[in-house]
Amino acid sequence: MGELEQLAKLIESGKAKRILVLCGAGVSTGAGIPDFRSPGTGLYDNLQKYGLPYPEAIFEVNYYRKKPGAFVSLAHELWPGIKFQPTLTHRFLKLLSDKGLLLRIYSQNIDGLEFLAGIPDDKLVECHGHFRTASCIDCGNAANAEEVKETIVRDGKTPTCNYCGGNVKPDIVFFGEGLPDRFHRLLKQDIPKADLLLVMGTSLQVAPVSMIPNMVRCNRVLFNRDLVMKIRKGRDMFVPGNCDANIQKFLDILGWTIVPTTTPTDKTEEKEESTDNGDEENIEKLFAKIEINAVEKQGQKNSGTSSSSGKKDEGKEKEKVARK
Ligand code: CNA
Fold first, then answer.
1. What is the distance in A from the centroid of ligand 1 to the CA of 200?
2. 136 and 214 fall within a common domain
């Protein structure tokens, strides 16, 4: 019996009915959003050539204070509900929830696609934050989320604080910032309850989320292109390759079907996006925009930063420890 058949048996027999899911950027690459680390296509292989001192700088508060343009361009491109839609894997997770089999999803993604897929709030922990709220990086005051969205999505500008004038950012967890309290609180409850862990589309490089597979006592199944965790014989399974393709096979084995749903989108945004040639814009243009911003800002401040592999590695090290 293959891995997917064994997994289906666990579910059909009722042995797996409180399923915990840990997912990352790999569940969204099918939507057209690059992950961080896939060689060639990942953001890390592409952002570094656009004037950032090292790729992770785009998610650093101090860098955002000085040079917000790169993150603003990324946020403009990624803003949930405008261009990218949930993948089959997201819709499968929604189906797990509908069937009462989902204990919780811990997503490292900031693209909001789980939310857009209709996964209920109480079943979802967006470990690294989301775009639905925003606050000032200096005084911490909450900003009006709609205004922030307009400033970034419509105007392509950096939102600033009405109280202190500091830069405002959507509540995405940057390196060095703490994860939401809810993450720690719910994880404590969920770890002893979980009877199956699905690890999907993550390189397990970012702590503390990367520690979840070692916390659980239940069976674990890895849906990923790469073998990123130790597979314990007789207890874990590895389903290698594209997660959407494997989820489709899994759905066929289970005899489950996914009814296409209309994704909630803001019609005003769609209109604005289309007048801005948004449909034509591809990820290459995102990088080009980042380049323009980075070059403009660099020209203004002439910071003299350059990309070097040493700095890149230093940044990666930072990432492993930064999100706590
Ligand atoms: P990562 O480090 O880029 O790893 C992604 C993993 O998924 C790799 O092991 C890939 O081989 C694998 N992968 C890529 N595509 C597929 C696919 N179609 N099917 C199966 N496996 C695939 O990303 P992580 O999520 O592990 O790193 C955590 C970071 C990434 C978080 O801080 C996120 O905020 C950040 N991130 C988020 C997004 C997003 O929101 N969509 C995009 C890029 C980065």
1. 9
2. no
Per the CB < 8 A criterion, the answer to whether 143 and 135 are in contact is: yes
Annotated catalytic residue 128? yes
- First vs last Cα of the chain: how many Å apart? 40
- Most confident of the following: 17-26, 73-82, 268-277, 283-292: 17-26
The pTM (predicted TM-score) of the whole model is 0.81
DSSP 98-120: HTT-EEEEEE---S-HHHHTT--
pLDDT by residue (tens digit) across 90-105?
Answer: 999 999 999 999 999 9
| Residue 13: strand, helix, or coil | coil
Q: Which two tokens stand for residue 130?
A: 């989301």
Total domains, the chain: 2
Can you give the residue range of the structural domain that contains 189? 1-30+85-128+180-324
78 and 190 co-located in one domain: no
Among the options 76, 90, 128, 130, which is catalytic?
128
For residues 237 and 166, membership in a common domain is answered with no
Q: Quick: pLDDT tens for 287-301.
A: 333 333 333 333 333
How far apart are alpha carbons 15 and 5 in whole angstroms? Answer: 14
- Measuring CA to CA, which residue among 20, 21, 44, 48 is closest to residue 34? 44
Ligand 1 pocket: which of 36, 71, 128 to mutate (most atoms <8 Å of CB)?
36
Taking the CB of residue 311, how many other CB atoms lie within 10 A of it? 18
- Cα(164) to centroid of ligand 1, in Å? 35
Return the half-sphere exposure (C-beta side, CA atoms, 13 A cut-off) of residue 42: 15
The CB-based long-range contact list for 309-315 (8 Å cut-off, 24+ gap) reads 311/53, 311/54, 312/44, 312/48, 312/54, 312/55, 314/54, 315/54, 315/55, 315/56, 315/57
Reading the block at residue 209, the tokens are: 């989320």
